[in-house]
Amino acid sequence: MIEHNFPSLKNDRILKAARGEPVDRIPVWVMRQAGRYLPEFQEVRAQHDFFTVCQTPELACQVTLQPIERFDLDASIIFSDILVIPQAMGLKVEMAPGVGPVLPRPLVDPNDLSRLIQPNVNEALKYVGDAITLTRHKLNGRVPLIGFTGAPWTLMGYMIQGGGSSTMAKARSWLYKYPEDTHKLLQMITDVIVDYLVMQVKAGAQLLQVFESNGNYLDDALFTNYSFKYLKQISERVRKQLKEANIPEVPMIAFPKGATMNSLKILAMDQSYEVIGLDWTVDPIEARKQLGANVTLQGNMDPCAMYSSQDEIIARAQKMVSNFGKTRYIGNLGHGILPDTPISSMEAFIKGMHSA
Ligand code: 1CP
User: Fold this and answer.
1) pLDDT at position 2, please?
2) Ranges for the Uroporphyrinogen decarboxylase (URO-D) domain (predicted)?
């Protein structure tokens, strides 16, 4: 057990909601809450390259705290990116202004697997752990700190496409052309993720979210074979390693964006994650009916609904709470907040959730 002497936690609503305990009001946080819609974030980014912010604990901590200083949120999420894993595995990743992440030398065929390294995560990604530990101290117990990772299939997508893609056709082709090598690649990524998440908890992360942002490209059979299989393995191995190190488990959130209702059911029935994040295409009442009462649901307002009037945002947030129900629910958007979202929309969203 590592002794950090962190300040004691004053707001544990999100932890309670994740574990199915009653809460006095709905906990809320927003994916990408530290981001470009905040002028104070833009100021930091004007002076520092994206990955410099990620790799400098003082800067990562500063931007993680920005939304916490400004809004009445119930959780913080460490500032980083899912692509730090491909970077640690030896692939170059650049952040192209206005475009997003670019990997100039993506994996083309299975021969390229030899270009990947299995890093010592405690060294290669130490900067994330340091940022988490520093942020836990600076948060001073105001709200819990969420650690995160990309899921194996989502990271594989970026590693093969060389960046974002509207079809993921090259990555999906691998699933049919090279099933064995695909499993080899997914397993390599999974091994890194497990060490990475354990390191984050040891450093002070109080919840973990696994972003399967490319879940929409998989049918139920592909989801089972190439996503769920590894999501389950990650949860089981992380919990086992924490137990062996005598460190208390933390709740885990899976966010399989765009997954079908059947795929969501597979994940919910398995119970390897306390929380399932939903995108905005999933109907709250239907989700609660299909996914059962033993899982906490998170989400799922359309990020574009943040462009409605403040009154409408408040009403939508309140309606979501009545549709999802007040227990086992965490308020969030159905995907990351968009860069030109008005600050007043964020205030209205939180107000709506908290007054429901
Ligand atoms: O110039 C900038 O500042 C770049 C914008 C930006 C930011 C603020 C990127 C580029 N990443 C981030 C931070 C980030 N990324 C966080 C910070 C913590 C918080 O939520 O406040 C998190 C959790 C992520 C995770 C992430 N990165 C995901 C999963 C969530 C999702 O959106 O599905 C993904 C897919 C990425 C890749 C990525 N990084 C950045 C962009 C623009 C993208 C998406 C690219 C694409 O697919 O088109």
Assistant:
1) 74
2) 27-36
| Annotated domain spans of the chain | 13-355
CA atoms of 250 and 15, how far apart (whole Å): 9
Per the structure block, which two tokens stand in for 266?
């597979």
- Rounded CA separation 347/342 (Å): 9
CA of residue 243 relative to chain centroid, distance = 23
In whole angstroms, what is the distance from residue 295 CA to residue 270 CA?
A: 10
Residue with tokens 């979202």: 341
The alpha carbon of 32 and the centre of ligand 1 are apart by a number of angstroms equal to 7
CB 113 within 8 A of CB 184: yes
Taking 70 as the pLDDT cut, the residues of the chain under it are 1
Coil vs helix vs strand at 108: coil
AA identity, residue 103: L
**CB of 151 closer than 6 angstroms to any ligand 1 atom:** no
Tokens 């390693």 identify what position?
Answer: 241
Taking CA atoms only, the protein residue closest to ligand 1 atom 33 is 213
Give the CATH number of domain 13-355; options: 3.20.20.210, 3.30.420.10, 2.40.30.10, 3.30.1850.10.
Answer: 3.20.20.210
Give 28's strand partners: 331
Neighbouring CB atoms inside 10 A of 288's CB total: 17
Which positions are catalytic? 32, 36, 45, 81, 158
346 lines ligand 1 (CB under 6 A): no
Nearest to residue 346, comparing CAs of 2, 41, 20? 41
> Which residue type does 271 have?
Q
Is 143 within 8 Å of 11 (Cβ atoms)?
Answer: yes
pLDDT tens digits, residue range 8-57?
Answer: 999 999 999 999 999 999 999 999 999 999 999 999 999 999 999 999 99
Greatest CA separation found in the chain?
Answer: 55
